[in-house]
Amino acid sequence: MARNLTFHIFRHNPADPASTPHMDTFVLNETAAMTLFIALNRIREEHDPGLQFDFCCRAGVCGSCAMVVNGRPALACHTKTRDLPESVTLLPLPFFKLVGDLSVDTGVWFREMYQRVESWIHTAKAFDPSKKEARMANATAEAIYELDRCIECGCCIAACGTARMREDFLGAAGLNRVARFRLDPRDERKDADYFHLIGDDAGIFGCMGLLACEDVCPKHLPLQDQLAALRRKMAGTALRRTLPFFRDVKKIRKK
Ligand code: SF4
Ligand code: SF4
Ligand code: FES
What we know:
There is one protein chain. The protein contains 9 helices and 7 strands. The chain starts with a strand and ends with a helix. Helix 3 (about 140-150) packs antiparallel against helix 6. The strands form 2 sheets. A 5-stranded mixed beta sheet has the order 2-1-5-3-4. The protein is about 40% helix and about 15% strand. It folds into 2 domains: about 5-105, Ubiquitin-like (UB roll) (Roll); about 120-245, Alpha-helical ferredoxin (Fumarate Reductase Iron-sulfur Protein, Chain B, domain 2), CATH 1.10.1060. The chain has about 260 residues and is of the alpha+beta class. The protein is elongated and about 80 Å long. It binds iron/sulfur cluster (2 copies) and FE2/S2 (inorganic) cluster (FES). FE2/S2 (inorganic) cluster (FES) binds near residues 60 and 65. FE2/S2 (inorganic) cluster (FES) binds near residues 55, 57, 58, 65 and 75. Part of an enzyme complex containing three subunits: a flavoprotein (frdA), an iron-sulfur protein (frdB), and diheme cytochrome b (frdC). It is an enzyme of class 1 (oxidoreductase). GO terms for molecular function: 2 iron, 2 sulfur cluster binding; 3 iron, 4 sulfur cluster binding; 4 iron, 4 sulfur cluster binding; electron transfer activity; metal ion binding; succinate dehydrogenase (quinone) activity. This is Fumarate reductase iron-sulfur subunit. It catalyses: a menaquinone + succinate = a menaquinol + fumarate.
């Protein structure tokens, strides 16, 4: 028998001074293969045309429909209602700027993060459009592609304890971006250059390693491996930077 689902949905329009944050409740009968995306569209069509939420691809590709579903960040278009209990609470992703109801602005944060980690190939070689691009080993190209699959949904940031405490934290998505360029043989940056970008508490040393990011990533990116590798490399770089200082102190003490 089809279930009746009760949706408790966060409502607020920050652009309207009269608006106060509150929850609205809607009841829908469940249909076969219903996703949260379908449910939200039905709520908009049948109950409240003013309900705000984002979507574009409806196929887990654009990353725009992420929201907090019963306490867990997830993509609305990829969440089947049959996997949820009869009572569903929907909140906008925390951390990002609220546009209204379930809609947040992840775009500005991702653009600023890409600028901050200098998310482009750094090379001293001049670009010659008439020259054939140098071939990359298949295994390297595949490893880069694996990390490039990030759809910028923001789920990993919304689930991250450090990001909730400090808004300058790069988060798993930002650190994954650095990991992607470290793999790229065309990028001539060294670990000392990456240390300059992520070697502090707003970068890799702020990560508490509890891996909520990996748990909620809808694309199953290997975030745990990337965070661990970056932590090792950046800790090694920090050690190499500080060792000469301690040697000098030792020499002075011996005098
Ligand atoms: S492992 Fe690090 S990046 Fe991932 S959720 Fe925890 S603190 Fe955030
Ligand atoms: S790493 Fe995963 S969870 Fe984070 S933004 Fe990319 S796809 Fe979304
Ligand atoms: S609508 Fe594009 S990922 Fe959900």
